[in-house]
Specification:
The protein is mostly helical and about 325 residues long. The protein has helices at about 5-15, 40-50, 50-55, 75-90, 95-105, 115-125, 130-145, 155-160, 170-195, 205-210, 215-230, 240-260, 270-285, 290-300, 305-315, 315-330.
């Protein structure tokens, strides 16, 4: 018996009857020989962790555009916090922790530079539209490994696609990530907003904090415990009505006070115009794209708009700024 087979056997013996067992995966689009050490979902987790798109998340905006300070969240630290929350819940409910972690680590791979403002402008510019959750799937299916993709299992790709609010993941592990994403960004965005002095903890409405807690730590503890207790022994991942309503209302409050119109968002218009300049430039100068994107367009018969969106969406914030300066900012010179 291989190490993988013994680990799969342990899953059968220990995990909940509602867990997605590694040996029962729906598989990959391109069949591969099984690993003798790692179950399939663990392999997916490792592939995501080692891919280029994952590394670029460290220089992509979460909410605060180019903040001065080392302690504000980036898209990478957000992803890690989602993973930690999701794994805690999955482990407590005896669900598949490897599948949960793979979905969590991959859920934002397709996010644009400059956060949701970058996503919004690409959605306007691209004829077929743009959404980061669809782009995350495209990254793992098509764009990584020079057009080969990561060949992940269907359960992981389903969880990545359906992590959005309106999504319906097919596994409980995917449902955990969907909720963990919201828990993570609500709480760490509050923490960052307080650090940025946009508001103070005591400014949060008491009708929500009296239910969820009066600090980030308390709220995380309350929400995670509530999901675990409410979902224990059930074929679904749920929150109690009281905690879920308070979380939704607090999220709506954050949209009004941080995500729209706050000092943290003042530079977003400039970032969007910059991405628009880059989009127009590459649409007119398609040969200026890296060779791997040109080969992808030729090999798959992709539209020019889609490939340009792929390239811009993959940029980190600083790389987008560097390319804009290189293409549009005059250089100083001196006579010989």
């Amino acid at each position: 018996m291989t190490i993988r087979e013994s680990m799969e056997q342990l899953e059968e013996q220990y995990l909940s009857p509602y867990a997605a067992l590694s040996k029962n995966t729906l598989g990959r689009d391109k069949p591969e020989e099984l690993c003798d050490i790692r179950p399939e979902y663990q392999r997916d987790r490792d592939r995501i962790l080692h891919c280029k798109s994952f590394r670029r998340l460290k220089h992509k905006t979460q909410v605060f555009l180019s903040p001065e300070g080392d302690h504000y969240r980036t898209r990478l630290t957000h992803t890690l916090e989602v993973s930690q929350i999701a794994r805690t819940i999955a482990k407590s409910l005896r669900l598949n922790e490897s599948l949960t972690e793979a979905i969590a680590l991959g859920h934002d791979l397709g996010h644009t530079p400059f956060g949701h403002s970058g996503e919004a402008i690409l959605d306007q510019l691209c004829q077929d539209g743009f959404a980061h959750y669809r782009q995350s799937v495209r990254v793992v299916e098509v764009l990584e490994k020079n057009g080969e993709g990561l060949n992940l299992t269907r359960e992981v790709r389903d969880g990545i696609l359906n992590h959005r609010t309106s999504g319906h993941p097919s596994t409980l592990e995917g449902c955990i990530v969907r909720l963990s994403d919201k828990i993570a960004y609500i709480n760490h965005d509050i923490d960052d907003a307080i650090r940025a002095r946009i508001f103070r903890e005591k400014d949060l409405p008491y009708r929500y904090t009296d239910i969820l807690g009066h600090s980030v730590r308390e709220r995380l503890d309350t929400m995670i415990h509530d999901i675990i207790i409410s979902s224990m022994g059930k074929p679904e991942i749920v929150m109690s009505a009281e905690k879920e309503n308070a979380m939704k209302e607090l999220r709506a409050w954050m949209f009004c006070h941080v995500y729209s119109g706050s000092v943290a968002k003042e530079e977003e218009g400039k970032a969007q115009r910059m991405l628009e300049f880059l989009y127009d430039y590459y649409m007119e100068h398609i040969d200026a794209l890296p060779q791997e994107y040109l080969e992808l367009m030729e090999r798959r018969g992709e539209k020019r708009e889609r490939i340009v969106c792929d390239y811009i969406a993959g940029m980190s914030d600083r790389y987008a700024i560097d390319m804009f300066e290189q293409l549009f900012v005059p250089k100083s010179w001196k006579a010989l």
